[in-house]
Specification:
This protein has 524 residues and is mainly alpha-helical. The chain is built from 22 helices and no strands. The protein folds into two domains: 435 residues, no CATH class; 81 residues, no CATH class. Helix 14 packs antiparallel against helix 15, helix 15 runs antiparallel to helix 18 and helix 17 runs parallel beside helix 19.
Length: 524
C-alpha cells in the first residue's frame, strides 16, 4: 500500500510542480487585478469540478461497485458495468456543461457576488463559458481513472493530470512571447482548458487496458446498478472536494475586496502541494485497500491500512504545515512576485498562506477518514461533514472577512476544515471503531517531536537568512529557498531514523521487493 501511495504522490507532486509553474506564469501575465480576479474565479470553478471528479473522488462509489460486480458476476460483467457508467456519466456532464453555459451569468453572480456591477463579472462569465467544454472530457477521464485504480493500476492515473498543466504552460509561454493585453490573454488561456481536457482523455483511451476491453461496451444506461452508483457517487464527489469547496466559499466572501480572490487563490496553490501528495494518494489507494478488507471481513487488514495511512498522513503533513508557515514569505516571493504581481501582493498572499496552513492537517485528516466510510459505501456521512464545514467557513468568513480581509477569510477556511475533520473522526470512532495499532501509537509522538525540531531549525535558519534574501536576485532567492527546504527535509528524515520511526534502508528494500512481486503477479 505504501508503494502505491508513493506512486500516486509522485505523480501528484509532478502535476503540482507544473501547476506552480503555470500559476507563476499566470501571476506574471495577469497580476492580481480585476482581470486576474475574474479569470481565477472562473478557473477555480472548473478546477473544483475537475478535482471533485478526478482526484480519487469517484473511487468512493465506482470502486466498491466495480469490485462487487467483478467478485459476484465476473470480469466481463464488471467491464460492462464500467461501460454503462462511462456512457451515462459522459452524457450527464455534457448536459450539465450546456446548462451551466446558458446559466453562467447567474452562476457567476452566486460565486462572486462582490463582482456585481463591476467589470470583472462579465469577464468571469466569458472565461467560464470558454472553459466549459472541459466537462465533455472530464466524464470519461473520471471513469477510466477509477476503473484503473480498482485494477491496482495507479501509474497512468497518477501521471495523466500532468498533461493538463503542460498544455496550459505551453499556451501561457506563447502569450508571454506575443505580449497580448491581459484580458485577451485570459480569454485565450480559458479556451485552452478544453484542449487540455481532450489531451488527457486521449492519453487514457489509447492505453492497453482500454484497448483490451475494460469499460466495454460503452452504453448510456440508468439501470439499477448505474442508479446505485449515482446515488452513492454524487454525495461522495461533493464530500471529496471539501477543501476546494471551502476555497470557493472563501472566494465568495472575498469577492467584494479587490485582489483578495487572487491572494487566496495563489496562497492555496501552496497548500495543495502537500494536500495533493498526501490527500489525493490517500483517497486513491486507501479506498481499494479498505474495500477489499471490508468485503472479506478482515479486521486485521482494516486496522493495518488505517494505521499506515494515518501514520503516513501525519508524517508528511506536519512538517509541511510548519514549513509553509515559516517559509511563506520567501516561497510566495520566489514563485509569484514577477511581472504584474507586486511586493504588496506577496505580503498579503504570504499572510493568507500562513493562516491556511493551520488548516492543512485537518484537510489531510478528512482524506484519511473519508475512505473508511467510502469503503463501507457510506457517502452521506462525509457529505454531512463537508457541508457543515462549508457552513462554518461561510458564517465565520462573513464575520472575519469584514475586519481582517483576505486573512480573515483564510482563517474561516481553516476553521471550517477543522470542523469537518472533527465530525468525521468522531463518527469514524463511534460508528465502526476506526483505530490504529500499537506501532502507530508508538510512532506518532516521535513523528510530532521530529516535526517540531525541524520547524525550530527552519525558524532559526530563516532568522539569519531573511536579511540576505530580501536584497538578493531571483536565482539567489530560489537557491536559498531550495537549500532551506532540502535542509529541512534531510533533517526531518534523519530525526525519523534516529528516533526509530523508519529505517530508510529497510524501506527501500521493501519497496523493491514489492515491485518484484507486482511484476511476478502480472507476468502470471
Amino acid at each position: 500500500m505504501i508503494r502505491h501511495i508513493l506512486t500516486v504522490s509522485t505523480g501528484t507532486l509532478s502535476s503540482r510542480i507544473l501547476g506552480f509553474i503555470r500559476d507563476s506564469m499566470i501571476a506574471a501575465l495577469l497580476g492580481a487585478g480585476p482581470v486576474a480576479d475574474a479569470f481565477l474565479v472562473a478557473f477555480q470553478f472548473i478546477n473544483v469540478a475537475r478535482r471533485s471528479l478526478t482526484e480519487g473522488a469517484l473511487n468512493a462509489a465506482l470502486i466498491p461497485g466495480y469490485l462487487r460486480v467483478c467478485e459476484n458476476e465476473g470480469r466481463v460483467a464488471a467491464a460492462a458495468f464500467a461501460g454503462r457508467v462511462l456512457g451515462s456519466v459522459s452524457l450527464i456532464l455534457i448536459c450539465i456543461a450546456i446548462g451551466l453555459t446558458l446559466l453562467m451569468p447567474l452562476v457567476m453572480a452566486l460565486l462572486a457576488p462582490g463582482f456585481a456591477g463591476r467589470e470583472p463579472l462579465q469577464l468571469a462569465i466569458d472565461d467560464a463559458r470558454l472553459m466549459m467544454p472541459y466537462f465533455a472530457f472530464v466524464g470519461p477521464v473520471t471513469v477510466m481513472m477509477g476503473v484503473l485504480n480498482a485494477e491496482n493500476r495507479f501509474m497512468l492515473t497518477a501521471f495523466s493530470p500532468v498533461l493538463f498543466n503542460v498544455t496550459l504552460i505551453a499556451v501561457i509561454a506563447s502569450l508571454m512571447v506575443w505580449r497580448y493585453d491581459t484580458a485577451t490573454s485570459a480569454t485565450i488561456i480559458a479556451g485552452a482548458v478544453g484542449v487540455a481536457g481532450l489531451l488527457q482523455t486521449l492519453i487514457l483511451v489509447q492505453r492497453r487496458p482500454w484497448r483490451d476491453g475494460i469499460g466495454r461496451p460503452i452504453k448510456i444506461s440508468f439501470d439499477q446498478q448505474t442508479r446505485g452508483f449515482f446515488r452513492k457517487g454524487i454525495p461522495g464527489m461533493i464530500a471529496n472536494a471539501g477543501p476546494q469547496f471551502l476555497i470557493v466559499a472563501g472566494a465568495i466572501v472575498a469577492s467584494s475586496s479587490p485582489a483578495a480572490v487572487s491572494w487566496l487563490y495563489f496562497a492555496n496553490r501552496l497548500i495543495e502541494l502537500p494536500l495533493g501528495m498526501v490527500g489525493v494518494a490517500m483517497g486513491t489507494v486507501l479506498v481499494p485497500e479498505l474495500t477489499r478488507a471490508v468485503q472479506i471481513g478482515d479486521r486485521a487488514a482494516l486496522v493495518q491500512a488505517e494505521s499506515r495511512g494515518f501514520e503516513l498522513a501525519v508524517g508528511l503533513v506536519m512538517p509541511a504545515m510548519l514549513g509553509l508557515i515559516v517559509l511563506s514569505q520567501p516561497a510566495i516571493r520566489v514563485l509569484f512576485e514577477h511581472g504584474a504581481f507586486t511586493a504588496q501582493d506577496t505580503a498579503a498572499t504570504a499572510q493568507a498562506l500562513s493562516i491556511l496552513a493551520v488548516g492543512l492537517p485537518a484537510h489531510v485528516l478528512v482524506k484519511v477518514f473519508s475512505p473508511a466510510f467510502f469503503a463501507r459505501e457510506d457517502t452521506r456521512t462525509p457529505l454531512y461533514a463537508t457541508l457543515t464545514g462549508i457552513a462554518v467557513a461561510v458564517v465565520s468568513g462573513l464575520l472575519f472577512g469584514k475586519s481582517f480581509g483576505a486573512s480573515g477569510v483564510a482563517a474561516s477556511i481553516s476553521l471550517g476544515a477543522w470542523f469537518c475533520a472533527a465530525i468525521l473522526g468522531w463518527r469514524a470512532v463511534t460508528t465502526f471503531g476506526f483505530s490504529i495499532d500499537a506501532t502507530a501509537e508508538r510512532r506518532l509522538p516521535r513523528i510530532a517531536i521530529s516535526a517540531a525540531l525541524m520547524g525550530t531549525m527552519l525558524v532559526t535558519s530563516q532568522y539569519f537568512v531573511a536579511p540576505v534574501v530580501a536584497n538578493a536576485g531571483f536565482m539567489a532567492q530560489i537557491t536559498i529557498l531550495g537549500g532551506l527546504v532540502a535542509a529541512g527535509i534531510s533533517f526531518y528524515g534523519l530525526l525519523l531514523d534516529l528516533l526509530g520511526v523508519v529505517n530508510w534502508g529497510e524501506a527501500l528494500i521493501a519497496l523493491r521487493v514489492g515491485d518484484l512481486r507486482d511484476q511476478d503477479t502480472r507476468g502470471k
